[in-house]
Write a structure and sequence with these properties.
alpha/beta; Arginase, Chain A; arginase activity; Arginase
């Protein structure tokens, strides 16, 4: 991979239900993300952190917590990711909570539309993130980004990418899902999302699941990966506020990343919900860096 990588920090937890994801970008830097990617021969430019409003820590209003602040952060993310793509660099968004994916994927979708390219989004997560203000149990917007991207959400977020919906549901593949609210489940089925939950991974194995999730890609496809660290089993990745038992193991996660790397099509990446307040000696950040290395082509097997 010869393209330059642009690291973009988004240190906020305004969309989350717990404090601490705002420290995620720095934890990834402390874990040596830039140096690890440079060791693979990649050009890496760390743009530092975006600025945005502080977390007011208020209760929900009309079904949403901190909507103005989430919108402000997503606008900043949208512009930063758009600028990175326009500069022919590969943006890596260092979150921050997962509500920021509305801005990052919105920018990627707009970029693809402008250039007539196809888009495939791999959503690696324990949660479907398809809540709306009508069904959310908390009002936390980090549980709503997929719904927003698919056209279900507040107008201020829906309009970010210039087109509503920002993406068509058929562009999306969700992998590792194991926590979905009842109302969410009905919406996910209603829009026809392709979901490879943990039972599917248990039954078919990660290799077949990834073969299915990556099917149909070609050189005209932009591949975006939105990696929520709670995708991983909490036994190996405790540093998130929204752990759900029974996630992918280390080797399953490695295989997932290696098979994405094998496509040669990765065009943008989110790394979300890393929360050092719940971590142990930064081990989750170090694991995330390890997996990101594999995503960018580091081989863990003795293959020619």
């Amino acid at each position: 991979m010869s393209v330059a990588i642009r690291l973009i920090g988004a240190p906020t937890d305004v969309g989350a239900g717990s404090r601490g994801a705002s420290m995620g970008p720095e934890a990834l830097r402390v874990a040596g993300l830039r140096e690890a990617l440079q060791a693979l021969g990649l050009r890496v430019d760390d743009q530092g952190n975006l600025a945005g409003p502080a977390n007011p820590w208020q209760p929900p209003l009309d079904g949403y917590r901190h909507l103005p602040e989430v919108v402000a952060w997503n606008r900043a993310v949208f512009m930063a990711v758009r600028d990175a793509l326009d500069a022919a660099t590969l943006p890596v968004l260092l979150g921050g909570d997962h509500s920021l994916a509305v801005g990052s994927i919105g920018a990627v979708a707009a970029h693809c539309r402008a250039r007539g390219r196809k888009l495939r989004v791999l959503w690696l997560d324990a949660h479907a993130d398809f809540n709306t203000s009508a069904i959310t149990p908390t009002g936390n917007l980090h549980g709503m980004p997929v719904a927003c991207l698919c056209g279900h959400g507040p107008q201020e977020l829906l309009a970010l990418s210039g087109t509503v919906p920002a993406i068509a549901p058929h562009c999306l593949r969700q992998i590792g899902i194991r926590s979905v609210d009842a109302g969410e489940k009905r919406l996910v089925h209603g829009v026809g999302l392709d979901v490879f939950d943990m039972r599917t991974i248990d039954e078919l194995g990660m290799r077949q699941v990834m073969d299915m999730a990556l099917a149909g890609l070609d050189d005209e496809t932009h591949l975006h990966v939105s990696f929520d660290v709670d995708f991983l089993d909490p036994d190996i990745a405790p540093g998130v506020a929204t752990t759900v038992r029974g996630g992918p193991s280390y080797r399953e996660a490695q295989l997932c990343m290696e098979m994405i790397a094998d496509t040669g099509l990765l065009g943008s990446l989110d790394v979300m919900e890393l929360n050092p307040a719940y971590d142990v000696r930064n081990r989750t950040a170090e694991l995330a860096v390890d997996l990101i290395e594999s995503l960018f082509g580091k081989a863990t097997l003795m293959r020619a």
